[in-house]
Amino acid sequence: METEAELFWEKRYRAHRKWGERVNPLLAEAVEPLRPGTALDLGCGAGGDTIWLAQQGWQVTGVDIATTAVAKTLERARELGVGDRVVTEQHDLAWTFPAGEFDLVSAQYFHTPFALARSQVLRTAANALRPGGLLLIVDHGSAAPWSWNQDPDTHYPTPSEVSAELDLDSDRWRIVRSDKVQRTATGPSGETATVTDHVLQIVRTTGR
Ligand SMILES: C[S@@+](CC[C@H](N)C(=O)[O-])C[C@H]1O[C@@H](n2cnc3c(N)ncnc32)[C@H](O)[C@@H]1O
């Protein structure tokens, strides 16, 4: 049975057929210098990042709560000739997490209006990294005019607040970037706006 959260996201991906098909620039910037390995894309949406990573030679697992999103990601990956480098899995990450170890775990705008122990999910993600692997978290620091969240009282946790909540052991993980950036975002109908992003990059330095 579909939960309220699944229905909410499912409806959005059925309606916005083109939503999230482009790679996020902050992901591209962080990943370009890395040697391709295995990657996990948490909340992969319509697959813009998953497919871009596969095109760079990464073996990618794209995960989302919305069945339409993961189906669309895999379909586009096949159309673009990188289907052999992409696996998709439907998970409500509040309850289940994909198996395996990864060189990169990416959480791009992994936000939801529903209850989700996000820190717990991101801590599990940090534990799923191989030594030397990178956890890349990019969060909204402001709302675009087309965002589902137009609540003026929203607090956007800063990268320091997110890392404090993660509370990772500094003997095994190192924060390599924690800052805010502004960028021009493009909405579903091609409109643009300046938005703030919160960027947190954490490297796993040693194994268990
Ligand atoms: C704001 S969108 C970002 C999508 C994509 N990463 C991007 O940058 O375009 C958040 C994504 O997280 C997914 N999501 C929300 N809650 C989830 C959950 N509990 N488990 C897995 N995915 C979830 C949504 O379906 C949606 O695709």
Automatic annotation (TrEMBL):
Record-level GO BP terms: methylation
Top-level taxon of the source organism: Bacteria
Any one GO molecular function term: methyltransferase activity
Pfam families in alphabetical order: Methyltransf_25
Gene3D superfamilies membership: Vaccinia Virus protein VP39
InterPro entries: Methyltransf_25, Methyltransf_Superfamily, SAM-dependent_MTases_sf
Keyword Methyltransferase attached: yes
Keywords from the UniProt entry: Methyltransferase, Transferase
Provenance organism: Kibdelosporangium banguiense
Residue stretches making up the Methyltransferase domain: 40-133
Record protein name field: SAM-dependent methyltransferase
